[in-house]
Amino acid sequence: MFQNYLKTAFRNLWRKRQISAINFLGMLVALTVVMLIFIFIHDEQRFDQFHTNKDSLYRVITHSENGLFGTYHRGFTGIPQGPAFAENVDEIEAFVRVKGYPELIRQGENSSYADVVYVDSNFFDVFSFQLRAGDAKEALKRPDQVIISEEQAHKLFNDESAIGKTIDIQVEEDQFDRLTIAAVAETPPGNSSIQFDFILPFIRYEQSENEGKRNDWISSFLNTFVKLKPGTTPQLVEDKFVPIVAEKAEPQLSKIRDRKPNIKQWYGLQALTDIHLQEDLAVSNGLANGSNPQYSFILIAVAFLVILIASINFINLSLAQSLDRSREVGVRKVIGSSRKQLIFQFLAESWLLVGLTILPALALVQFLLPTFNSFTGKTLPADILYQWPIIAGLLVFQLLLSVLAGFYPALVLSRFKPIQALSNRTKLGGRYNWAKGLVVVQFTLAILFVMSALFFHRQFEYLQDKDLGYEPENLIGIELPWFTSNDIAPLFKEALQSYPFIEEVTARGNISKYGVNQTLVEFNGDESMTVAYGNIDAAFIPAFGIQVQEGENFNPAIGSDTLNKVIVNEAFVKKANLTNPIGQSIRMGEDQLEILAVVKDFHTESLKEEIKPLVMYCRPNSRVRELWVKTSDEHAAQTIKIPVSYTHLTLPTKRIV
Fold first, then answer.
1. pTM of the entire structure?
2. Do residues 79 and 212 lie in contact, with contact meaning Cβ atoms separated by under 8 Å?
3. What is the reported pLDDT for 310?
């Protein structure tokens, strides 16, 4: 019986080739879009799910009110919280601290930046990262040993074994420490929040910090994970944190209460599997790949609309040719076909049509996957389409789409009476008039898509045309090695300034793609506020085209400008409520500083962030993070091609347009 349905379905589809081709293309586009969206959402939901202990792993988060840096909630802690909580809370089975950032790695004559994480020795017991060779537990107890990822091992040593070989890691300026590779770990999957190229013992990081930092309960700069015992609730553990914080952190909090009498600080827990999609808590310091759950909701809505349009298109075309098929229905009913059989026949046609699009859709998704990865920032592998959840979802979707598109036409066509059908007196009037509204719905959805496309186009135009407070055209950035930045920045500036088509070269620190640093500033005697701060040189303001509203730019020839003068932005003046800011004094740390100028507000972070009060100083000895080159329109491409390297280290450049 089923074979007969398929034969008849093939014949009908072939007989109406043009209509079938239109339906086929509609279903192909719908299936391709939905498959891409499905694998995106599947990857988003599967983040960190591969850990065996995922349901008992939590990240400790810090809550602060009325503190030195205002009110905030961060997914970070300091060094002492993990050991203190594990020692005093019986429900905590283990803790692991993770601290990471890019570091300069040297192997032979080659140097490059890599993602380095410092972790406690039980890292591989708590998390389900796999070892390929070596003894990780012993390696993480010795500060002179390192664990390397498979990807880095292949990159540095090709097919040779990496165990026993050495690498050098920069510790400061021209000083490197030699480390022995003791183990090789599987490269973290793309859907892991913890990403690494090299793993070093946390004791190495801890030893590099002073005693004050090792006992600091106020600052938060690393990730602390805890593994809870079975049957333990996060709320119970959070409640037990309170007396521990009152005892351990009180000495430091009491010192701050002179300036911030209402300061409060407490700690909570965030499930490991929530980290990726909980955007209000930052993902950094050894974690990566944070996302926004709104992306999934938007894509689900897009998938639904695409399916709806394709289904309505199928329904309308099927109903349009229903009068041509009325005699077929009449003959079938005369020779004994039941309504149920006719419904199955028409559903078989829609199922077959959707089924014929599966292989072309798979091929199209495979072709589009690299572009899709580039657009979404993911690293979805090519074989993801052949994993059982994807295949199962595809088959279920085929069935649902077949029923959605084919059920109503099957219901309508199977109602035809034999006499009316054979005498060609069949009409779609009466209660089927509402089906005409599907055409209106289809056009409405199409218009909605066009309006959405225009909306996003306007959003991109807004981003491109938004006044950032500076002139981004033809600015090219060079990220500098952290420890040697102060030494090589003048060398690079001198070399780049020798090119006649380069207009300005400037350096800046604490204001970078990683965000801005913040500190407390006192003004008007006893008032204080949190501000962003950064180190710049005299070329920064003209290179970025920032407008000076009052006062004048730094002058390196005047020594006081580089010692005790600062430039602030309009947001600073407004928040501090200064009427005549030029010449007024502020205090930052131990330094008494004088306001030299006020500049127009400019964006240093995402446009979603409010412009913060900003203090900029010009101190030659302060560390810088980036060089920025201002060039002319016709020479921008030529400038990017200028080789910038230092001791075999190629520095990344980027153009801001």
1. 0.75
2. no
3. 80
